[in-house]
């Protein structure tokens, strides 16, 4: 399984026209604002997100409704895809800009519009592809769907079955998209007195890489910012080198 994931990531890497040099002067991860805890953090809708819209008692206004008898969004493609302009096409409402809006903001906006036709619309909006990817020395490397905005590193590691024997707990990498750049946090889980700071909060779209113990020297030289790339490309580079 791990071998297949590495091959897949390498293919994605070489398919990209952007290549990066990871071996640059190291910056202290604590100086990166990308990973600061934010109690008010809410996921913001992104391009290519898959969104379902449920309007209670109004199947003709719903797409992939959670209120229906059958909920088969992923199987039958019942979602609204956010296009390159950050828009979706909502039944009866039409083209709606959704990118960079939070779920509560979008729900309130749709509800306000639907009040033109419905007395008290009850709606639900979901992003179906909110995911966190865990790679490397864990028992079951996988991409895990998350429904809530606030999840912790160790909580997600537990969903993979935990660390493998050769996991290097001193140099876990967390990759996060920050505009056109990828920020990297270097996490040391071996200090039990610092667990509140190292068990950091993950966001949907993050990629966690757990390297093996044999790659200590390589891990020390990885930059904490990779410019003009994506988390998938950055993960492919790192995974391909250990």
Key descriptive features of the protein:
242 residues, alpha+beta, Outer membrane lipoprotein wza fold like, 2 domains, six-stranded mixed beta sheet, three-stranded antiparallel beta sheet, 7 helices, 13 strands, elongated, transport
Detailed description of the structure:
With 242 residues, this protein is an alpha+beta fold. Helices cover 23% and strands 23% of the residues. It is built from seven helices and 13 strands. The chain has helices at residues 2-15, 73-76, 103-114, 153-158, 195-198, 216-220, 231-240, and strands spanning 50-55, 80-81, 87-90, 94-97, 123-127, 131-136, 142-145, 151-152, 172-178, 181-187, 201-202, 207-210, 225-226. The strands form four sheets. The chain has a six-stranded mixed sheet with strand order 7-6-12-9-10-13, covered by helices on one side. Strands 2-1-5 form a three-stranded antiparallel sheet, with helices on one face. The chain is elongated. Residues 6-31 and 216-220 have low confidence and may be disordered.
């Amino acid at each position: 399984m791990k071998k297949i994931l590495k091959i897949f990531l390498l293919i994605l890497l070489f398919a990209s026209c952007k290549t990066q040099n990871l071996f640059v002067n190291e910056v202290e991860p604590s100086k990166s604002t990308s990973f600061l805890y934010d109690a008010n953090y809410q996921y913001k809708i992104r391009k290519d997100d898959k969104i379902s819209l449920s309007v209670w008692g109004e199947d003709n206004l719903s797409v992939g409704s959670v209120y229906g008898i059958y909920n088969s969004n992923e199987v039958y493609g019942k979602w609204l895809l956010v296009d390159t302009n950050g828009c979706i096409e909502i039944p009866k409402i039409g083209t709606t800009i959704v990118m960079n809006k939070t779920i509560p903001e979008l729900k309130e906006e749709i509800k306000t519009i639907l009040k033109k036709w419905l007395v008290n619309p009850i709606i639900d909006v979901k992003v179906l592809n909110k995911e966190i990817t865990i790679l490397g020395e864990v028992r079951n490397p996988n991409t895990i769907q998350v429904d809530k905005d606030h999840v912790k590193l160790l909580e997600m590691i537990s969903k993979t079955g935990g660390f493998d024997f050769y996991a290097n707990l001193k140099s876990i990498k967390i990759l996060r998209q920050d505009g056109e750049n990828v920020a990297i946090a270097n996490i040391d889980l071996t200090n039990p007195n610092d667990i509140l700071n190292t068990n950091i909060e993950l966001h949907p779209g993050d990629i966690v890489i757990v390297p093996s113990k044999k790659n200590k020297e390589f891990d020390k030289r990885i930059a904490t910012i990779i410019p003009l790339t994506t988390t998938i490309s950055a993960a492919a580079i790192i995974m391909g080198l250990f």
